[in-house]
Write a structure and sequence with these properties.
This protein is of the alpha/beta class and 160 residues long. Helices cover 36% and strands 19% of the residues. The strands form three sheets. Strands 2-1-5-8 form a four-stranded parallel beta sheet, sandwiched between helices. Strands 3-4 form a two-stranded antiparallel ribbon. β6 and β7 form a beta hairpin. α4 crosses α5. The protein is globular and about 50 Å long. It binds iron/sulfur cluster.
Length: 160
Amino acid sequence: MYLISACLAGKPVRYDAKAYHYDAIQQLIAQQLAITACPEMLGGLACPREPAEICGGSALDVLAGKARVLTRQGGDVTQAFISGAYKALELAQRHQVTAAVFKENSPSCGRHFIYDGSFRAAKQPGAGVAAALLLQHGFAVLSEQDFFARLADRKSTRLN
Ligand code: SF4
């Protein structure tokens, strides 16, 4: 069972109420091989909402109370991000998820990259808060690019 960022599954839960549409992900859901979650909305944030970035440290620092998640206007949404991350973890544990497929660059779901806290669209290596919590608890977390690359590998192996 996969746990997939809800915005990758066509659900309009992004901060700007937009979503992404991928056939491969829709197929997993139709085959009941995946569940979806939006950690930010699980944490109680609205949609649409102000964009937020991790400021002053890493996602692990946020989880340890040493860094914050702030909106562009300076609102502190740290607790909502932490609460949403724990709810996503609970879902992963309850559904015996084997891997999460999370949206790259998000302050919650980013796997390899997140925005750097400057609100200038600059990215830096690092994970989002929910991704970091799942990794900390031993779950495999893939970005959508990792997932599509894995699918392509499987297809080419079958063809060879
Ligand atoms: Fe929600 Fe994660 Fe998508 Fe952001 S990236 S909208 S937190 S599912």
